[in-house]
Structure formats: C-alpha cells, structure tokens
Design a protein that fits this description.
The protein has 8 helices and 8 strands. The chain has about 240 residues and is an alpha+beta fold.
C-alpha cells in the first residue's frame, strides 16, 4: 500500500504542477509554438515523467498514466459544470484587433507579438489588417477573424463587375523599427515616410507598432495606445 500511496500523491502533484505551468506559459503552448516553446514543453514533460519513473518501483509506475487519464476526465466533467473553474483553468477569449486597430495592451497580456499575429492572419487568408473587423484569440490559442462586411464573399465577379489587382501589403515599420530594405525596394524615401507619419500626427517612429504599404500606395499605420473611446470586451462579467 505504501507504493500505491506514493504513486498516487506524486501523480497528483505532477498533474497540478503541469496544469499550473501550462497556464502560466499561456495559450501559445496549445497552438503556434516556437522552437523554444517546443523544447520547453518537451523538457517539462520529460522531467515530469522521469520524476515518477525514478521514484516509484516496479509495476506501480504504470498507475501514473492511468491516474492522469482519470484525472483529466474528471477535470473535464467538473469544468463542464463550473463556468468559474473553466475561466480559471482555460482563460477567456481576448480581442486582438477591433475595427482594424491592433489592441497592444491585450496583445501584451497574452504575450502575442506582431509576427505571430501576422502569421495567424495569413493562415486565415488575411493579408491586409484593414480588412479585419474583429480578431479574437481563443482559449485554445487559435485566432478567429471576422472580416469587415465589404470584404466578405460576394465578389465583384459575382455581380458582373471587373476587379482590380489585390496583392500583399509590404511592411514598412514593425514595433517602432523602420524596415529600410522594404522601404528602398518600393523606391520610397525616409522623407516620404516621415511626411506620411506627420499627416497622421505621429511624432515619433517608436510610437508606431505597425505600418504597411498597401497595394494602392496608401500607408496603413497603427500606433501604440490607440485612443479608442470604446473597446469591445467579450469576457463574461459576473
């Protein structure tokens, strides 16, 4: 019975620890992992498994995966019935883009950087942030995107009108840094860029989170600390 008690409490300890660590690391662990995230995730799992294997003797160690499976099922049943526990363990959806504007505070809260945002948008077939009405980071780590009504399918071809070329926007500024190569590739000067920023009342390039040259020649800009009078929240308030 000593071995049984030992494997059960150690498995319980590991189960709780892994849930806490996964919650701290965040929802990136569930979706778009970087190489670092992957290595850390594998290492944590390996160390956890080795802890039980090396400290429990004989066939008793086989009870550990059984305990994990049963505990996972029980936790699923409990969270199914409890909204508050679901929020605590799984988190809540977070709005990342609203009305074509990036919400930097929300991105920082979930540690979701601009490169990852662009990749997720491209996975949704969105190559232009101005087309996005809402983008929501779900609890499982995937990005849900609602395009603006004028960008939703019914195409011009469907109504018998000609279409214009729609290519990929070119990044000009990212996280306050000017991408000089992209600027020169489009035969644009720093003077042109600074003039465009002045038109938008941007005093410092470092205030610009993201700027991209659209295919029509216009410059899309998103600055830090956007002055939005109302920020949509989709979290449940109780």
């Amino acid at each position: 019975m000593q071995e049984l008690a030992e494997v059960l409490w150690k498995s319980f300890f590991l189960f709780v620890l892994l849930i806490i660590l996964t919650r701290i690391i965040g929802r990136k662990l569930l979706s778009q992992m970087t190489y670092t995230d992957f290595v850390i995730g594998v290492t944590i799992g390996t160390i956890a498994g080795a802890f039980v294997v090396n400290s429990v003797r004989g066939l008793w160690v086989l009870l550990s995966p059984v305990f994990f499976a049963v505990a996972t099922l029980l936790l699923s049943l409990i969270t199914y019935k409890s909204l508050n526990l679901r929020k605590m363990l799984q988190g809540e959806p977070v709005v990342i883009i609203q009305n074509g504007k990036i919400l930097e505070k929300n991105m920082k809260k979930v540690r979701f950087h601009i490169d990852l945002l662009e990749m997720e948008l491209r996975n949704q077939g969105v190559f232009d942030i101005t087309e996005v009405e809402f983008a929501v980071l779900e609890t499982h780590g995937q990005l849900s995107v609602l395009k603006k009504s004028q960008n939703l399918p019914v195409t011009k071809r469907d109504i018998g009108k000609s279409t214009q070329y729609k290519g990929m926007a070119t990044e000009i500024i990212k996280d306050g840094v000017i991408l000089e190569q992209n600027l020169s590739q489009n035969n644009l000067s720093f003077g042109w860029l600074y003039n465009e920023l002045r038109k938008r009342k941007v005093k410092d390039v470092k205030d610009v989170v993201y700027a991209a040259l659209q295919t029509d020649g216009s410059l899309y800009t998103d600055i830090e600390e956007d002055d939005l009078k109302y920020v949509q929240e989709i979290e449940d308030k109780r």
